[in-house]
Write a structure and sequence with these properties.
The chain is an alpha/beta fold. The chain has 7 helices and 14 strands.
């Protein structure tokens, strides 16, 4: 047998021990990671005390903005439909769909409704509006017109759609601006309105902080933000135990939204439907207090004020 020096034998033993430690540490990491790996569906209990939130963002919480807001090219089909209807130019209904719903008709006439035709949440928000108002996502301007003409308030109608803003101006709104909310600046307001699923503009939980910080900067010290939202949990199937089966990989209200008009389609945009408790957590982490003003089935109106 070949002689092996004692020192070399000791070195070999130490290396074996180190290798064993590496293997044990690797196994530990695997066991640590496996519980966080989601399967195709997550089961969400109706009895959860945290507003149906225990499944979401275990690695990337909503309060950590990981991505910048998604910028997208826009054909302005919504604006073109609004323009065509206003000018009586061969209008067709808009069609909309999301990543979890089928094609749906949206009559363009609905965007021109008056106060009596609006739903209870919209009416409540308009009644609560006061002072200098910013109407974000003004569309055809129905909310702005009511506040300007019926309540004699100073209103700025803001929308990303140039054609929609042209119609707002033609309908008599004194100040209408075609601009992205994140790029709008220079003024502050007593009331900021975000209606017709106002939470949609936030895109996703990963960038909601960016929008809330911007809203905070646009709001006067004693001002209010009136925003509506819808909890779309009802759109998912329930199992025999009363749990809800939702697709894994993110918050269930983060959807792709597509608009179609006259055989043309916009690129999908990100659109966010928020349950009230998730909205509450987000706004409270961005310097706001929140109050639920009213609830209508799965939809709600919330009021945000600065802390």
């Amino acid at each position: 047998m070949k002689y092996i020096p004692k020192i070399l034998t000791s070195t070999i033993k130490n290396n074996v021990i180190k290798f064993q430690n590496v293997i044990l540490f690797t196994i530990f990491l695997i066991l640590l990671i496996i519980p966080n790996i989601q399967t195709n569906f997550s089961v969400l209990s109706r009895t959860d005390n945290f507003g149906y939130r225990k499944f979401s963002h275990s690695i990337f919480p909503y309060k950590t903005p990981i991505f910048a807001p998604i910028k997208f090219s826009m054909k302005d089909l919504m604006g073109r439909a609004i323009w065509d209807y206003f000018q009586n130019e061969n209008t067709e209904d808009l069609q909309t769909e999301t990543s979890i719903s089928e094609l749906d008709e949206l009559p363009v006439k609905y965007l021109f409704r008056d106060f009596e035709e609006m739903n209870a949440i919209e009416q409540k928000a308009l009644k609560l509006s006061k002072g200098k108002v910013l109407d974000i996502g003004a569309g055809a301007g129905s909310h702005s017109l009511y506040l300007q003409n019926e309540k004699n308030l100073e209103v700025t109608a803001l929308d990303i759609s140039p054609k929609s803003i042209e119609v707002c101006q033609l309908r008599g709104i004194n100040k209408a601006v075609a601009q992205n909310m994140l790029e709008f600046s220079g003024e502050t307001f007593d009331t900021i309105l975000l209606l017709m699923n106002g939470t949609g503009i936030f895109q996703s939980l990963q960038v909601i902080d960016i929008y809330l910080k911007k809203l905070h900067s646009l709001l006067n010290k004693n001002g209010q933000i009136l925003i509506d939202g819808t909890d779309i949990l009802y759109m998912f199937d329930a199992d025999e135990d009363g749990g809800i089966l939702i697709p894994a990989g993110g918050y269930y209200g983060e959807l792709d939204y597509v608009v179609h008009y006259k055989d043309e389609s916009e690129d999908p945009i990100k659109w966010l439907y928020l349950d009230f408790n998730t909205l509450k957590n987000a706004v409270e982490n961005n310097g706001f207090k929140i109050e639920k003003v009213m609830q209508e089935e799965d939809s709600y109106l919330a009021k945000l004020t600065k802390k």
